[in-house]
Amino acid sequence: MHEVYARLAASLALAPLPTEAAAFAGLKAHAPPYPDTLAAMHALGTHYKLVALSNIDRASIACTLGAALRGVRFDAVLTAEEIGSYKPDRRNFEYLLDYVAREWGVGRGEVLLVAQGVGSDHVPAREVGLWSAWIARGRPGGEEGWEGVGRENEGLVGFRWRWGGLGEMAAEVERVFGEEGGGVGGGVK
Predict the structure, then answer these.
(1) Which one, of 59, 88, 83, 68, lies nearest residue 1 by Cα?
(2) pLDDT tens readout for residues 84-108
(3) By CB neighbour count within 10 A (0-12 exposed, 13-18 middle, 19+ buried), where does 163 fall?
(4) ∠ CA 171-123-120 to the nearest 5 degrees?
(5) How many Å apart are CA 175 and CA 66, to the nearest integer?
(6) What is the mean pLDDT of the chain?
(7) Cα dist. 147→82, 88, 158, 165 in Å?
(8) Cα Rg for the chain, rounded, in angstroms?
């Protein structure tokens, strides 16, 4: 985010100030989560391993985890900084798959990518053969609809589920576990 600030300042012919760069870098880390996020993450974490595949650096994600997502337990946090590339680069998703296979013996077919970003997450997820669930906050079209995907991504995404928020997803997971003893995706953890 420091680099983004420096580029933005340069594009406006302004001299970047270190204090302003630091403040700008911290904005995203302190943004409040959506109202359903914390409870949903706690619920999902009781059934599944949670891995954050982040497009930011270690310091920024540490701020987010210590502030906006305080108390949410991630089993792993993988950052663009450690991977050496940014989403939508396929290397990020291959890194994720290599990590979960090495650490937990989890195969490609047992991973569910849950994300809002269509071009940054769902397109490359399909390219590497991952199941995905679209968190389509504020998007029209209902659970089965594709509205909001964007023409540029038509035919490039293959999300299996669509929810309006993480709370809806967590409620469905709880319902399925309660009824069948398994989870969304056949109970794969």
Answers:
(1) 59
(2) 999 999 999 999 999 999 999 999 9
(3) buried
(4) 80
(5) 30
(6) 84
(7) 34, 21, 14, 16
(8) 18
Does the pTM surpass 0.85? The reply is no
DSSP 42-93: HHHHTTS--EEEESS-HHHHHHHHHTTTTTPPPSEEEEHHHHTS-TTSHHHH
Contact 78, 56 (CB under 8 A): no
66 to each of 1, 19, 32, 73, how far by Cα in Å?
Answer: 18, 21, 12, 11
Q: Which residues have a Cβ under 8 Å from the Cβ of 178 and sit 6 or more positions away?
A: none
CA gap 44, 185 in Å, rounded = 13
Which tens digit of pLDDT belongs to each residue from 106-128? 999 999 999 998 889 999 999 99
Distance CA 1, CA 25 (A): 5
